[in-house]
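Before relying on records like the one below, remember that each one covers exactly one chain. Contacts with other chains, cofactors or solvent are not represented anywhere in the record.
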Amino acid sequence: MLTGTADPATLAANAARIKTFLNDPVELQGVACFQLTAEMRNSAREAVLPPALHPTIPAALSLQAWQVAHSPWGPFTATICRVSCRSGVRARGFTTAAVATTQTAAQALRDHFGFPCRVGAVALDRHYDGVDVSVTLEQRQTLRIAAIDPQPLGVDDVQYTGTLNLAHTTRGLRLIQVEANHRANRVERLRARIVEFDGAAWGNALLEPYRVIAASIALEDMQLAPVRFQCKPDELAFTGTEPVGGG
């Protein structure tokens, strides 16, 4: 059985500290959600995941960009890099880095959901013939995606896996299980290519996407559900999962 080999303490170098687990869902409205999934080199397969998680074969990562018109934290745009994995039998994405355009949104994503979120320049530009995504940190571009030829899909044709964020909690270092409910009214698939990707800036220099599997954009409303479970990062989910206890 393959499991991650990364040291959880090392992975937690930029981990958030959960201040409060929310009791009510967070509504994000007027969202453009872009997602790209790509295969990456097998050298990163186990090396970027904690021992609690199982890598996928082939190794893959997903990049999500959210352009949010309305939220409790105001409008913002964010990009999240996740490594595909399984927690027990459930497909998940382990977050290696996240960037949001406003301090309020970045802090809320850190404090309540454990995203390792920084503030930076994130752009999601949707055109009639494609989508462009870019992220700049400290005046250096760390991500650029170009996607073209949008083709309509059914609103249920794109599935999003749950997210695991490594964060400090009152019980110690834990993997926080974040579930986002997507309510799409329009979905399109695209042909995409990664023009620029700096693995080190997105959590680990071993991250090296080289073949795009799929890309899509959904126009939707999104709900971030209250966190219910967390996992020990050095113990498999079957025995290491705990309820958060509401606060």
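The first helix runs from residue 8 to 11.
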